[in-house]
Design brief:
Helices cover about 65% and strands about 0% of the residues. By secondary structure, the protein is mainly α. It has one domain (about 1-355).
């Protein structure tokens, strides 16, 4: 909004020229989202407590200490993230960017699905929420629609192709099947972050780290000079997604202030489904779908641990891990929650650096 109002005046007022720079607006969006989330946090948490008598329902088959330490903590904290993210994005982004609107629709749509899931959990006082079949149906339908939208916005020759990291000219053309690929990327990222969200601060920091990587990726692929120098696929207008990703970081930092152990609020599916979907949509829009699997490798490992556990238990009746997802396995082994969370953050940071290296290795 600010860009669309003041950028045309930059020739008359030199100060407004700053608004034309994506880097300035990305930084401003991050700070705006941080301030908004910090300012709104106490009120949002008080509101969530008013109708969540007893807080988020805790799984009885989970680690025993959760029944004591996390009982009564409200969920749906993702509302705070979404409010700050959407408001700061709309304030600082170029509102003519179709890619940003596509990513926002996917993010808010997945957030609403998560909100419905959390609402059913807290009102019915159980851990089931929206049925798995219904959740997948909504995720796939919305993901496919947004994927088709993004394909329509991308330039010909790049729209239906999957870029392979490291190999500068390797593009796999999936034709009409590509929207389905994009749909699975968004669904997979969304559910992976959701599975990782099980300990205080565990999911939000790796999500912010991944968003930080995509701030840089979006900026580079959206700039024809940098994209040409690094031999990346140039996506016109993708630089505006850097503003969105920066706003996500700011909103995440503000949420972490209240989610730091011991958490005053959980993000719930409202936040985890939205954050994962946002990362997936940005990866599809910037043609870095496979890089997301590297940068978000922690989410991938958590998801794979669940798949292995379920598959092996159905075949043999035995468990590979003491409990899945993987972070609960280490809890069962006696690791302190803070130890697990910080070590997983370190892993996420290392994977982010590996993902960033693919931008230069060609």
């Amino acid at each position: 909004m600010i860009f669309n109002i003041f950028a045309p005046l930059s020739d008359s007022f030199a100060l407004f020229n700053l608004i034309r720079y994506t880097t300035f607006r990305a930084g401003a969006a991050c700070l705006t989202a941080l301030v908004l989330s910090l300012a709104l946090g106490p009120s949002v948490i008080r509101f969530l407590r008013t109708f969540q008598r007893g807080g988020q329902p805790i799984r009885e088959d989970g680690p025993a200490r959760h029944l004591v330490e996390k009982k009564g903590t409200p969920t749906m904290g993702g509302v705070l993230i979404l409010m700050a993210l959407v408001a700061s994005t709309l304030l600082w982004v170029d509102l003519r960017s179709g890619l940003v609107w596509a990513v926002l629709v996917l993010t808010v749509g997945y957030g609403l699905l998560g909100f419905a899931d959390d609402w059913l959990k807290v009102t019915k006082r159980n851990t089931k929420g929206v049925s798995g079949r219904m959740k997948l149906a909504v995720q796939s339908g919305l993901g496919l629609a947004v994927s088709i939208w993004i394909v329509w916005l991308l330039p010909r020759g790049l729209d239906t192709r999957l870029a392979i990291p490291v190999f500068k000219e390797a593009l796999l053309n999936f034709g009409y099947l590509f929207p389905i690929i994009g749909m699975f990327v968004m669904m997979g990222a969304s559910n992976a972050v959701n599975l990782t969200d099980g300990l205080d601060g565990l999911a939000i920091v790796p999500a912010m780290i991944a968003a930080g990587v995509f701030v840089l990726i979006s900026y580079l692929v959206g700039n024809s000079i940098f994209a040409g120098y690094l031999q990346l696929q140039h996506v016109p207008g993708a630089n505006e997604l850097a503003v969105f990703c920066a706003a996500l970081i700011g909103a995440g930092l503000g949420f972490l202030w209240f989610n730091a152990p011991p958490a005053a609020v959980f993000m719930g599916d409202t936040g985890s489904l939205a954050l994962g979907g946002a990362l997936g949509a940005v990866a599809v829009a910037t043609k870095h779908e496979l890089v997301l699997a590297i940068v978000g490798g922690l989410f991938v490992v958590e998801t794979v641990s669940v798949i292995i556990q379920v598959f092996w238990y159905k075949r043999t009746g035995r468990r590979v891990f003491l409990m899945a997802p993987l972070h609960h396995h280490f809890e069962k082994k006696g690791w302190a929650e803070a130890t697990i969370v910080i070590r997983f953050w370190i892993i996420a940071m290392v994977l982010a650096l590996v993902g960033l290296s693919t931008l230069k290795i060609r």
